[in-house]
Amino acid sequence: MNFISTPIAGVVLIEPRVFGDERGFFMETWAAAKFHEAGIDATFLQDNQSRSTQWTLRGMHLQVEHTQGKLVRVTDGSVYDAVVDLRRSSPSYGQWWATELSAENKRMLWVPPGLAHGILITSASADFLYKCTDVYSPVHERSLAWNDSTLGIRWPLPVGVVPNLSAKDAKGVSFVDIDKFA
Fold it and tell me: Looking at 36, 80, 117, 130, which residue is catalytic?
């Protein structure tokens, strides 16, 4: 596996080794020892999967307690995956970064606790898998406004297209007002 640092402290883009032939492919998506060697020590408590249609935007999500580290990947389709650093002690506090994850490129992303995380579906549909270091806790979940003007995340939406949002995400809180981490 190739572990690639990103501009956001602790966020790592992972390129697995893919072994393919005429039958298909094989790749390793989690190996505790290899991740530990790369500085990612995670114990996963929950796995999730979502399927969404094109231009659905899920996020920007975080939990203020039961904070979750996430190892995310796409098994069908493609997404624009974005993170925002909400850790005041981080050198990248208040910054965002994004990348494409797809079934084709097979890349994974490690998102440590303390970040807001969201995806925009850029293909006709996409299946998104994520391993979490803590359980889902609805009472502690928050949504950062996907279109917060302070952050200025550049979502790759075509001109005139408005993303499909959940009611919760449509009421996302501004960066100024969202809960932050130490």
Answer: 130
Q: Closest Cα partner for 61 from 134, 119, 11? A: 119
Active site includes 130?
Answer: yes
pLDDT in tens, 13-71: 999 999 999 999 999 999 999 999 999 999 999 999 999 999 999 999 999 999 999 99
Check 61, 66, 80, 140 and give the catalytic one: 61
CA dihedral 149, 113, 131, 37 (to 10 degrees): 120
Say what the pTM is. Answer: 0.96
The mean pLDDT of the chain is 97
Q: Does domain 2-17+30-170 have CATH number 2.60.120.10?
A: yes
Distance of CA 59 to CAs 41, 81, 116, 143, 176, Å?
25, 10, 8, 6, 17
For residue range 81-135, what is the model confidence (pLDDT) as tens digits?
Answer: 999 999 999 999 999 999 999 999 999 999 999 999 999 999 999 999 999 999 9
Domain ranges in the chain are: 2-17+30-170
What is the C-alpha separation between 46 and 99, in angstroms, rounded?
A: 24
Does 66 participate in catalysis according to the annotation? no
| E strand or H helix at 34 | helix 32-37
What does the pLDDT look like over 150-180, one tens digit per residue? Answer: 999 999 999 999 999 999 999 999 999 999 9
